Amino acid sequence: MTVSTFSQVLRNLPTKASQRDLAATFKEVSRREAEMISLATEHGSHDGHSLEDAQRGRNYDLNRYSNVLPFDDNRVRLEGRNDYINASHIKMPKVTPNTYIATQGPLKHSVGDFWRMVWEQKAQAIVMLVKPVEDGRSKCEMYWPTESQKLGDITVTLESERPMDARGDTLVRKFVLARYGEIRSVVQLHYMEWPDHGVPPSPLPILNIIQYLRLEIVPDTKHPVIVHCSAGVGRTGSFITLDSSIDHLATHHNEYNGDLIMDIFKNLRSQRVMMVQTLDQLAFCYEAVIYSLSEQKRMEKSPV
Q1: Global pTM?
Q2: Catalytic status, residue 229
């Protein structure tokens, strides 16, 4: 179905035809990606994408999942000889100036690398969308100290920890990082109720996190927001989709020529595999944007 504006996409979303189109497009994008990954894994590269660095030597043991590997052309490169980390630079200049790093939850032996990345990329914010253990399985190493810890030449100190709001499902942790006399602050927003391969029970907590990120932390767009779950693709891609789409709509009078969510989804899949991993997660992105826009209208109509 052809539409000219994002408003029309959202109005048509409840129809069965629109939902079928959404499912068919998701399936086709995923099929092409799986084919590309298979060829790239077997032959080193395909359609300009190479996965060779992620599979080379010791790097392979730094991947949490063997089927979630960063492309060579936009992978994050650490300073020094051992430059590999399973993380991808994400940019969408046609949608938002915001920049991101999508990364896996650190492994026990890559915690130091994670904080090196935070420091070297001058990140001011980390968004964590996973519990360290889910359904009895380790999904992410608890990479932050309860007090203070030295990791290589970086000292990480937990300054404070508190709930973001009365709901209690998101924690705000503030860290002080010190290296060679230089001190920086980093804030971690940790949402704990997003199930693996699923969606949150409500869009509200994620929208609240985005609001806190952009209004309270206000990270410099020159430096990426680091977003991770376990693999750094499903929940991570969904969050980046929402944050970037809401930013675009806020600065472009709630409009976009085309299907904003779908364009972001396809763009993300070209930068990191399996971003927005399931159809339910893609549908959730539309639902959360609709919720955000409806709340905005409600607030505009409310008496002062």
Answers
A1: 0.95
A2: yes
